[in-house]
Design goal:
single chain, alpha+beta, Alpha-Beta Plaits, four-stranded antiparallel beta sheet
Length: about 100
């Protein structure tokens, strides 16, 4: 499995917009397994975790024009561009 963890700062008052973008997106990327978005109880930056079946599927999705449009829509609600950490998941289990 492969994916990314993104850390981002949501503009004040835009929290519901960000939740809506993630939860109302009808497009399921090929090879996608899961996405999780976390709003920390203590406040601060949010985290998003994307899981794909392979690095190839992840990269193919990232290169799609439709994904770029989704990203541009998200950027309208963020203070700055997210920081990204991409890599191979070496342990994963759903309890």
């Amino acid at each position: 499995m492969y994916g990314s963890v993104a850390e981002f700062s949501v503009k004040p008052g835009h929290e519901d917009d960000v939740v809506g973008l993630f939860s109302n997106n009808d497009r399921t990327p090929e090879g996608a397994i899961a996405i999780f978005v976390l709003r920390p109880d203590a406040g601060g930056n949010w985290l998003a975790v994307a899981v794909f079946e392979s690095q190839e599927a992840y990269v193919a999705n990232a290169e799609l024009p439709e994904q770029h449009e989704v990203f541009l829509g998200l950027m309208e609600h963020l203070e700055s561009e997210p920081t990204w950490t991409d890599g191979h998941y070496v342990v994963g289990d759903i309890m």
